[in-house]
């Protein structure tokens, strides 16, 4: 009997140790540790209340420790991510800040009223590859290269007569210029607000976002003279040179045709803004 008990005890210990070794060599993995989903995802689309915004330069990265690094504004932020099946969630301090689906290489995410689409970097489907391979562009420089924007040549042409900076075949004119004092920036931004209550203004729309790391304000409206689209990119300081001062970039379109500043082509132009030096 003692030999039988000793034998059963040895068998029990052996099975227990084998189970421990098996667990040690095959640790349980969670969705956050799945290497297939880790890495950087490039933003390929953004919509807000049906309006299309430019996704260039925005991304997020899923890290193996369960954190996600996002670059959707002018600086990087961090949250936590979780994947259950195809359901993707982002939380900060336990509070949900974003939800969507992760299917294959594509992540759809709703966050703060905005809908984002991301594609995993390196899959050959990201927005940067797509944008670089479609259409042709030219560069317009403001005041001796204070800043520059790229515009699609299938939509805009430079005006040789000098009546505007750019124009379209259907008569829309555009100006790529600057505001040269801090006071003027404040005055023109106040003018944006005044147009909202002007009885002669119809179809007023406004939006605040970020361009090249700087706060931007855009408005679209219609009056007796036609449609108007205006954008002010506020640098917050003089970004000019010895010849010209520049506290803000100002981009303006007007004409009988509705050309919105959140039109995909115009958003691409505005978000391509680069400052000399």
From TrEMBL:
User: What name does the UniProt record give this protein?
Assistant: Uncharacterized protein
PROSITE patterns listed in its UniProt record? PROKAR_LIPOPROTEIN
The residue range of the signal peptide is 1-24
What organism does the record attribute this protein to? Evtepia gabavorous
Keywords assigned by UniProt, alphabetized: Signal
